[in-house]
């Protein structure tokens, strides 16, 4: 099983090493620390990236849904006003 240190994991995830450390400390990336350095497995990085993509997709879908609701409210409000004036 392939393992990475923080610098290698950052290159794999295309981010800064400190970002990887923050995610490890927050528990979002599973890692061990046998000495002074973190040791991260490829499955742990893949799980993190998959979860990150799912979270971004979910946020995007929620944003779109919210926009549609707001547009519908505007449409209903305009329709109600114009309906009473005619």
Give structural attributes.
86 residues, mainly alpha, two-stranded antiparallel sheet
Question: Given the C-alpha coordinates, what overall shape results?
Answer: elongated
Radius of gyration: 23 Å
Contiguous runs where pLDDT drops below 50 for at least 5 residues: none
What is the residue-mean pLDDT, rounded to a whole number? 81
Percent of residues in helical segments?
over 70%
Beta content: under 5%
Largest sheet: 2 strands, antiparallel
> How would you classify the helix and strand content by structural class?
mainly alpha
Report how far apart the termini are.
72 Å
How many separate domains? 1
Number of strands: 2
Strand arrangement across the biggest beta sheet: 1-2
What does this structure look like?
The chain is mainly alpha-helical and 86 residues long. The protein has one domain. It has helices at residues 6-13, 17-25, 42-85; strands at residues 3-4, 40-41. Strands 1-2 form a two-stranded antiparallel ribbon. The radius of gyration is 23 Å and the shape is elongated.
Secondary structure topology:
Layout: E1 3-4, H1 6-13, H2 17-25, E2 40-41, H3 42-85
Antiparallel strand pairs: 1-2
């Amino acid at each position: 099983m392939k393992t990475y240190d923080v610098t290698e994991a950052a290159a794999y995830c295309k981010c800064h090493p400190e970002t990887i450390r923050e995610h490890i400390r927050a528990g979002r990336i599973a890692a061990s620390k046998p000495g002074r350095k973190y040791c991260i497995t490829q499955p742990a990085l893949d799980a993190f990236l998959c979860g990150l993509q799912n979270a971004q997709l979910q946020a995007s879908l929620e944003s779109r849904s919210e926009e549609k609701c707001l547009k519908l409210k505007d449409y209903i409000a305009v329709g109600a006003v114009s309906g009473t004036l005619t």
